[in-house]
Design goal:
The complex is a heterodimer of chains A (about 250) and B (about 240). Chain A has about 250 residues and is an all-alpha fold. Chain A is built from ten helices and no strands. In chain B, the strands form two sheets. Chain B has a six-stranded mixed sheet, with helices on both faces. A three-stranded antiparallel sheet of chain B has the order 2-1-4, covered by helices on one side.
Chain lengths: ~250, ~240
C-alpha cells in the first residue's frame, strides 16, 4: 500500500534505521558478544604476531591482521546474530516485531544495517590496533576490503539466520560458539588454509576460507581477490535461498 | 458501528489437526469482543491469522477491510498486538523497548501508558528481571502505544494482581469508548462478563456461541453456559 501523509507509520527508511539502532545497541551492550567481537580477536592478533607459531612468512603481521579482521566479521555477522535471533525467536520478539510497522522485511533490513555498523567499528578498531603493531596494508587492498566485508556479512548473516530459524535457542548458542572456534582454528579464517595441516584444497572453498583469503589477498597486495569473492557470492546465494525456504518465526 | 474484524469460514490445518474449522464471527468498532475456548479450540491460530502471522488455508480474514497476510506498514500501524508469550526482548529495559517502538509511529501515547499501567517504577529494569505481571503491563503498553484502531490482546490480564487487573480493564474500556475495536482472548469468565460487549466461544475450531454475555448466559451464569457449550464438566 502506498504511504501517504495520513499513514500512522513512520516512513520505511526511518523505521529501518530505528530498528538498526535498536539491534546495534543490543549487540554493543552484550558483554559476551563484545568479548567475541573485539577482545578475543585483539588477543588473537597480539598472540599470533608475538608467537613464532604457526610458521608464517615475515612480516607475520601482514597475514595475521587480515585474518583477524575476517574473524571479527564472522563474530558479529554469524555468532552474534545467530544467538540473538535464536533467543528473539524463542521469546516471540520476531513475531511481535513482524506485526509492528517495521514488519519482517524491516526487521531483517535493520539487523543487516546493525551488523554492518558494528562490523565497521570492529574493523576500524582492530585495524588501528594492527597499525600500532606494525601492519602496513596495501592501499588498493584497503579500498577492496569493504566489498570483502560486505560479502562476508551477507554470507555469515545468512548462515546465522539459517541456524537461528531452524534450531532451538540453546542448540544455536552451543553450535554458534563451536562453529566460531572451528572456523577460527581450522576453517581458513584466521590463518591461511595451508597452515592447517594441508586442508587448503578444501578450506579455500568454505565461506570461512574464502573470507579469510579475500582479506589476505587484498590487504597483502596479492591482487584483486576475484576467486574468494566468487566463492562468497555463491555461498551467499545458496544460504539466502535456504533461509527463505526454512526460516521459522516461532520456536 | 462498523465491522473492524471479519472472519468468514476460516480454516487452518496442521497435518491431521484442524486447528480452525470453518469459524465465522466479527468484531465491531467501539466494542470489546472476548474470545473464549478451551486449550486447542483454535483461539490463538485464529488471532494469529488476523494478525498476519499465519496464512489461512481457506476462508477470509479482514481487519479494517484489509487482508492481514498482504498488509503493509500502514495497516500494521493501525493494529495493536499483544502476544500470549509477550514477545519482549529480554536484555533491554521497558523504557528502551517502548522508546524504540514509539519511533515506528508518527504519533504515540507511550507516556500516558507508562503512567496508566504504572510502568515507571520498573521502566529501567531489564525485561528478564521483571515479574510476569510487570511483563504483561509492558506488553500491553507495546500493543496500545501506537493508538491502534484495532487491538488483539492475548490474555492481557494473566498474572496481574487485582489492582492492576482493574486498571487494565478501565484502560480497555476507555479505548473502546474512543472507538477502538478490542479483541481479547481470555480464560477468565469474570473478565469476559465484566469486560465484553460481545463474546465468541470457540471449540474444536468452530464457533459454538456468538453474542452478548447476557444472551449467551441466557439468564444463568456464563461459566455454566460455557461448559455446556464446550462439552466440558465443571471441576
Amino acid at each position: 500500500m502506498a504511504e501517504t501523509t495520513l499513514s500512522p507509520a513512520e516512513p520505511q527508511g526511518r523505521r529501518i534505521l530505528a530498528q538498526a539502532r535498536f539491534e546495534a545497541e543490543i549487540l554493543a551492550r552484550n558483554g559476551e558478544q563484545l568479548l567475541v567481537s573485539l577482545v578475543l580477536p585483539a588477543l588473537a592478533m597480539v598472540a599470533l604476531i608475538a608467537s613464532p607459531y604457526p610458521d608464517l612468512p615475515e612480516p607475520r603481521v601482514a597475514l595475521v591482521v587480515p585474518g583477524v579482521l575476517a574473524l571479527a566479521v564472522v563474530s558479529t555477522a554469524f555468532t552474534g546474530q545467530a544467538i540473538q535471533t535464536a533467543f528473539d525467536r524463542r521469546y516471540g520478539v520476531l513475531r511481535l516485531l513482524a506485526t509492528s510497522p517495521v514488519g519482517s522485511d524491516g526487521l531483517l533490513a535493520g539487523k543487516a544495517v546493525a551488523v554492518a555498523v558494528i562490523a565497521i567499528v570492529q574493523l576500524v578498531v582492530l585495524g588501528a590496533l594492527g597499525v600500532a603493531l606494525g601492519w602496513r596494508p596495501d592501499l588498493l587492498g584497503l579500498l577492496l576490503a569493504p566489498l570483502s566485508a560486505a560479502l562476508g556479512v551477507w554470507v555469515f548473516v545468512s548462515l546465522a539466520l539459517l541456524l537461528a530459524g531452524a534450531l532451538r535457542a540453546e542448540a544455536v548458542l552451543a553450535l554458534a560458539n563451536l562453529v566460531w572456534v572451528l572456523l577460527a582454528g581450522v576453517g581458513g579464517l584466521l590463518l591461511p588454509g595451508d597452515t592447517v595441516g594441508g586442508l587448503d584444497a578444501i578450506v579455500r572453498w568454505l565461506p570461512s576460507g574464502a573470507l579469510g583469503d579475500a582479506f589476505r589477498d587484498g590487504l597483502t597486495g596479492a591482487g584483486v581477490p576475484l576467486l574468494p569473492w566468487a566463492v562468497l557470492a555463491l555461498w551467499g546465494a545458496v544460504l539466502s535461498l535456504a533461509v527463505v525456504r526454512t526460516f521459522r518465526w516461532r520456536d | 458501528m462498523t465491522r473492524a474484524v471479519v472472519v468468514e469460514d476460516l480454516r487452518r490445518v496442521f497435518g491431521d489437526t484442524r486447528a480452525v474449522d470453518g469459524a465465522t464471527w466479527a468484531a465491531e468498532t467501539g466494542e470489546i469482543t472476548c474470545v473464549l475456548g478451551p486449550n486447542g479450540a483454535g483461539k490463538t491460530t485464529t488471532i494469529e491469522c488476523l494478525e498476519g502471522l499465519q496464512r489461512p488455508d481457506s476462508g477470509t480474514c479482514r481487519v479494517l477491510g484489509t487482508d492481514p497476510w498482504q498488509a503493509g506498514a500502514d495497516h500494521r500501524a493501525r493494529v495493536g498486538v499483544m502476544l500470549q508469550d509477550g514477545g519482549l526482548p529480554q536484555s533491554v529495559s521497558a523504557a528502551r523497548l517502548l522508546g524504540h517502538l514509539q519511533r515506528l509511529y508518527r504519533s504515540h501515547r507511550v507516556d500516558e501508558l507508562i503512567e496508566r499501567l504504572d510502568i515507571a517504577p520498573f521502566a529501567r529494569t531489564p525485561v528478564r528481571r521483571l515479574s510476569g505481571g510487570q511483563r504483561q503491563r509492558v506488553a500491553l503498553a507495546a500493543a496500545l502505544l501506537g493508538d491502534p484502531q484495532v487491538a488483539f490482546l492475548d490474555e492481557p490480564t494473566a498474572g496481574l494482581d487485582p489492582h492492576a487487573r482493574l486498571a487494565v480493564w478501565d484502560l480497555l474500556r476507555e479505548r473502546r469508548d474512543e472507538g477502538v475495536a478490542l479483541v481479547v482472548t481470555t480464560h477468565g469468565f469474570d473478565e469476559a462478563e465484566r469486560l465484553a460487549d460481545r463474546i465468541v466461544i470457540l471449540d474444536g475450531g468452530t464457533v459454538v456461541a456468538d453474542g452478548t454475555p447476557a444472551a449467551i448466559a441466557a439468564g444463568g451464569r456464563l461459566e455454566d453456559a460455557y461448559f455446556a457449550l464446550t462439552g466440558g464438566t465443571r471441576g
